[in-house]
Amino acid sequence: MADFSYIFQEDNPEHFLTEIFDKETRIYLNSSVKIGYQLAIDTLKKEDSWLNDLRGKEILPRLKTFGVEYMIVQYIRNGLLNLNYSINYTPGKNNTFLLFKDKLDKTDLIVNQSNSPARPSRYAKYRENRYNNFETYFDFDKKIFVEEKPVYVELNHGYQTDVPIFTVLGIPKDSKTWYTSIPVDKEFELLTDNKAKFITTEKEMSDFNFDDFEKHIKESDAQ
């Protein structure tokens, strides 16, 4: 076997996260969560909602994440978030999820509903497979060092309420701890400039197109 020298991760996790997802980006992500929750609740409240033919409130948690993802996609389409996105299958092709990437392909971002901002999302194979992406590590099967895989980032929101109690952006180390995390729901209060821009944007983006949202869900949840 060839000799390998371990290359330590040079970037500080917090510096890396804030460099890729600057404050303006984080504010739009937080806005996506707030408006996404409103969209989910309003969709269920509609008397003629197509969701009433399905499982109604039983699917509300998943509907909230669909709403958040949908709003991120709308911000992307409107040129306000500089991200790409794709629909991906979980291992075994049992479910789908939206994967967001920055333009330099340095990160994989997944939206999750979780019960606490203090730790990453609960274990899931499609998330667990990405945990070691922030560090150089040795792949014993391929006998190589992996150095340049996209860093896995979570945008987590929660929990079981009509409005989000928290929104956190972070780099998970595993399902219990963060390398670093940012409570993005607290950052709007810290802005000193351009507040009017974000308030106006939220009002414009809250004019929902329920038919388009339905189409998004059906495309995202295709089996």
What is the structure about, briefly put?
This protein has 223 residues and is an alpha+beta fold.
Approximate helicity band: 25-40%
Beta-strand content bin? 15-25%
Low confidence ranges: 1-8
User: Sheet bearing the most strands, described?
Assistant: 6 strands, mixed
**How far do the termini sit from each other?**
43 Å
Strand tally is: 8
What structural category do the secondary elements indicate?
alpha+beta
Give the number of helices.
6
How are the strands of the largest sheet arranged?
1-2-3-6-7-8
How confident is the prediction overall: mean pLDDT? Answer: 80
Q: Radius of gyration in whole Å, from Cα?
A: 18 Å
Global shape: globular
Notes on the structure:
By secondary structure, the chain is an alpha+beta fold. The protein is built from 6 helices and 8 strands. It has helices at residues 13-20, 23-45, 60-77, 125-128, 195-205, 210-220, and strands at 83-89, 96-102, 107-113, 137-139, 144-146, 151-158, 166-172, 178-182. The strands form 2 sheets. It has a 6-stranded mixed beta sheet with strand order 1-2-3-6-7-8. Helix 2 (23-45) crosses helix 3 (60-77). The longest helix has 23 residues, at 23-45. It is globular. 29% of the residues are buried. Residues 1-8 have low confidence and may be disordered.
